[in-house]
Design goal:
This protein is an alpha+beta fold and about 400 residues long. The chain folds into three domains: about 180 residues, no CATH class; about 40 residues; about 70 residues, no CATH class. About 45% of the residues lie in helices and about 15% in strands. It has a four-stranded antiparallel beta sheet with strand order 1-6-7-8. Helix 3 packs antiparallel against helix 5. The radius of gyration is 33 Å and the shape is flat. This is Phage portal protein.
Length: about 400
């Protein structure tokens, strides 16, 4: 569907709805308002575990290099510069991806509206408040639209004009992603209540520090006098007490923080990591971690956490920022996940060594990854001298000795 067709459809939707002011959109659209949008920001700001998970995911996505390719070779156009450097007048590419990913992990959905210039070219991508956008489906055509509640009215945008990054969704809630924070609502509430209870216990434990025991029964006035003398003596003598005859002073030993609080924190970290589909070690939990190297931990994070997210971004950009003709010409956007899988110096060096000897990588490609300038001759593929194609005649193998040639009948 091109721009003119989408414009006609939008006018049709608006015209049909203009004659039915008193009705809702149920006749024209399927789906209703989500109830999972309130209170998410406050929960994100008050729970450090969820904040850490969202920060880890959003920063990881924002730091991945994003380039525009044509058949494995980077190309540079106005569109590639828009995505890689400045999606709009107020943001860098880092900020754009990080905010979009934060919205996805907080509200379940992240939206960016395409803005057009001359000749139907995309000039910018503007991030929208996800609480003001609702995916709806037009009944007659089955086309997906986005209902935007702005300050000056209600607008409708076709799905090809909106970048939509989301969490999983079901047929019941249409095309709207489920908020992970709403899934964690019970975990957040339980964690908060345990913390508040522990703080109240700790405050009570601070005020009650000693038990005074007397051999005889004394009246209220005498108790008050003894207690005041006890407090004054303790204050004036730097915490030193003198135990008199007939009086016993027992200090109250308390664990100000119950060990079960730490168990609750472990449970919270595990549940948050499970919902956000990331290794619990990424949230500071080391118990049970069995990684032999940082490379293995990064591999799990990339494979099971980032790869599905990256694929969603790539398909959204390729489908909605490129025309079918451009895709047929071999143009596509791609994130570089290799930056997170480079390993340590020893592992990386051995990998490069094998790839160069096998004729897979060019030396200058490796130098570029290591941020070194290219060298003359490094633009060629090389192969080890002791490796030959299996059909190479023995006489052409430089490593075959004269005695071996006689045996082979050469």
């Amino acid at each position: 569907m091109n721009l003119w067709q989408r414009t006609k459809m939008a006018w049709k939707v608006i015209r049909n709805k203009a004659t039915q002011v008193d009705e809702n959109f149920s006749k024209w659209f399927r789906g209703g308002r989500s109830i999972f949008l309130s209170g998410n920001n406050s929960k994100l700001a008050s729970n450090e575990t969820i904040f850490a998970a969202v920060s880890r995911l959003s920063n990881s996505m924002a730091t991945l290099p994003l380039k525009f390719f044509k058949e494995f070779s980077p190309v540079y156009t106005e569109l590639s510069d828009l995505i890689s450097n400045s999606p709009n007048n107020n943001m860098t590419s880092f900020d754009f991806i990080r905010i979009l990913e934060t919205h996805r992990n907080v509200h379940g959905n992240g939206y960016a509206l395409k803005m057009y210039g001359r000749h139907y070219s995309v000039t910018s991508l503007v991030i929208l408040d996800p609480t003001c956008v609702e995916p709806v489906v037009e009944q007659e055509t089955g086309e997906l639209w986005y209902e935007i509640n702005g300050e000056k009215g209600r607008y409708y945008v076709h799905n090809l004009d909106m970048i939509h990054i989301k969490h999983i969704h079901t047929t019941q809630n249409g095309y709207k992603g489920i908020s992970p924070i709403d899934v964690l609502r019970n975990t957040i509430d339980f964690d908060r209540e345990v913390r508040e209870f522990s703080l109240s216990q700790m405050e009570g434990g601070i005020h009650a520090s000693f038990i005074l025991k007397y051999a005889a029964h004394i009246g209220k006035e005498k108790k008050a006098e003894i207690l005041e003398n006890f407090k004054s003596f303790y204050k004036d003598n730097g915490g030193v007490l003198i135990q008199e005859s007939g009086v016993e002073i027992d200090p109250i030993t308390r664990n100000f923080i119950d060990t079960k609080v730490f168990e609750v924190e472990k449970i919270t970290r595990t549940r948050v990591a499970t919902v956000f589909n990331m290794p619990v070690s990424m949230l500071g939990e080391t118990d049970g971690a069995s990684y032999s190297s940082m490379e293995q931990m990064s591999l799990e994070f990339v494979t099971y956490t980032l790869l599905p997210i990256v694929r969603q971004y790539e398909q959204e950009f390729n489908r909605k920022l490129l025309t079918p003709q451009e895709r047929q010409r071999g143009l596509y956007f791609k994130f570089n996940l290799s930056a997170l899988l480079r390993g340590d110096t020893s592992t990386r060096g051995e990998f490069y060594f094998k790839m160069v000897r096998s004729g897979v990588f060019k030396p200058n490609e490796i130098r570029a990854w290591e941020e070194l300038p290219p060298e003359v001759g490094g633009e060629k593929l090389y192969i080890s001298g002791d490796l030959y194609p299996i059909d190479t005649p023995p006489s052409e193998r430089k490593g075959v000795k004269a005695s071996e040639q006689e045996v082979l009948g050469i």
